[in-house]
Here is the input.
Amino acid sequence: MSSKEMKVSTRLGLGFGAVLILLAIVSGVAVRNVSVINAAVNEISTDKFPKTVLARDIIDQINLQARAVRNVILFGDKERSQREMERLVESNKLIDKQIERFREVARSEAGKAGVAKLIDAREKFQAKQNQLLKFIHDGKPNEARDYLITDMRGVQTDYMKACEDLSEHQN
Here is the structure.
């Protein structure tokens, strides 16, 4: 039967049915895409962004430590230097917590490798920092200043780069 032989009501019914089928297809695709977007937003908000915040917090603490060490070298009086040393101790505790959290939440092999790289860079940095603090404790501010500029800069840069790489891995 051709469309010319069908009643108008039949043609309208078939046309309306075709529109309903197309509407169902479009609705199904939309629901699927919304669920994909929802999963991506969920991953960003519960996984990637918190890890980025952890990495940025560590970078902030590294910068705080750099300023504290600089201040200890620059300050002449023991009271102000002692306050800066206390900031270093507190900063190290915060970094320890952040790295431990990173260990807990790293799932991918690349993430675990990034955490291992961060820990390695931190150990090298802390070894240099301890030597610097020994110069300060022994009353050798000139040696401490030279050591800060020549030996500490490279390991501090590597340490910060490891944090930045870990943060970039989340993007």
Remarks:
- Helices lie at 8-74, 78-105, 109-137, 141-169.
- The chain has a mean pLDDT of 89.
